[in-house]
Amino acid sequence: MALIVQKFGGTSVGTVERIENVAQRIKKFRDRGDDIVVVVSAMSGETNRLVALAQSIDDKPNAREYDVLLSTGEQVTIALLSMALNKLGVPARSYTGTQVHILTDSAHNKARILDIEEKNMRSNLNEGKVIVVAGFQGVDEEGNITTLGRGGSDTTAVALAAALKADECQIYTDVDGVYTTDPRVVPEARRLDKITFEEMLEMASLGSKVLQIRAVEFAGKYNVPLRVLSSFDEPNFDSDDHTNNGTLITYEEDEMEQALISGIAFNRDEAKLTILGVPDKPGVAYSILGPIGDSNVEIDMIIQNISADGTTDFTFTVHRNDLEEAQRVLTQVANDLGAREVKGDDKIVKISLVGVGMRSHAGIASKMFKSLAEEGINIIMIATSEIKISVVVDEKYLELGVRTLHSAFGLEEK
Ligand code: ASP
Ligand code: MG
Hints:
This protein is an alpha/beta fold and 414 residues long. The chain folds into two domains: 3-251, 3-Layer(aba) Sandwich (Carbamate kinase); 264-408, 2-Layer Sandwich (VC0802-like), CATH 3.30.2130.10. It contains 13 helices and 18 strands. The strands form four sheets. Strands 3-6-2-1-9-11-12-10 form an eight-stranded mixed β-sheet, sandwiched between helices. Strands 14-15-13-16-18-17 form a six-stranded antiparallel β-sheet. The chain has a two-stranded antiparallel sheet with strand order 4-5. A hairpin with a 2-residue loop joins β17 and β18 (388-394). The structure holds aspartic acid and magnesium ion (MG). Magnesium ion is lined by residues 9-10, 41, 151, 153. Aspartic acid (ASP) binds at residues 9-10, 41-42, 47, 73, 135-136, 150-154.
């Protein structure tokens, strides 16, 4: 018997029939004696519908009222799911974020959870009730409804699991786990049984959108074991963990089978900017990147060439949507600095190898570069961290590059 937080996303509760299926699944866990806290999203498409309604009145709607509106989607689901559970003879109680008391700051539309009151939940659990909590929403100190940002129900689930010290937080979604890479690019991609929080963060921030990044950060910080699994597969109670499917995201264990590389992430939303012929003297990096930062453009990779004849070149990457703005700012900077030229390029992508195994193994970078070279793929930029090596390449090489690396590092289905 365990205390499990189960989160069901929009697709999993997209129709009344699916909500009834979710209730059946919860009953199976209850029947084995598990205590269950459920977190649900709005029915699929509902939050988008509410966003569109607001936007039809005002394209920058009042932030407080926007949260009052958006939070209604989840309220529908908690009520319907609790009805379905009660009908099956499983006592259940629904709670909005305000009722369960998920205290957040007052940053409407992107609030952060500060505290969760667990007293009421504990007494309900002791009475054998299933608790059904609305995801994505909370309440600030003044009693205003807040929301946590799109995809925020994942964070609600992890935060509840942390507050209740649950044995596991299960995120049910429409995919059955985290894959070595996007199966649409590499059909041989394999589902991972386990991955560390750190690796998952790298995969998520590089575009594998299985989980909200904040939820993974939260889980890592509070050591909440997270499992991603499909709400369309039957639970399997025969294995010694709670289910035998999905991907468990957890901390690094010594005995954890140390794959060299866990996955290959990629990002199509990259663009790069180069400023040529800037004087090589103290303060130049700051005078280039300071104004970019001030205009709220996020910078990713940065390269400065060694200088020839007292001048140097500076290249960095930004989100593709920010290219135009960054180029405008940089042209101004180039004028001020007396630089020669500014170039922008949005036909690039980033491909990254991710794996904690990199820490203890040398030669991974050279193997990566050799595999790409053999396919004639030119590397434009390189960046490394302890558990990641990223390269920027021409966008036409995205698929080839990912496939090449996936097989070079033996990640395919065995
Ligand atoms: N319903 C919200 C959204 O669509 C929150 C969530 O599903 O996690 O973003
Ligand atoms: Mg979601």
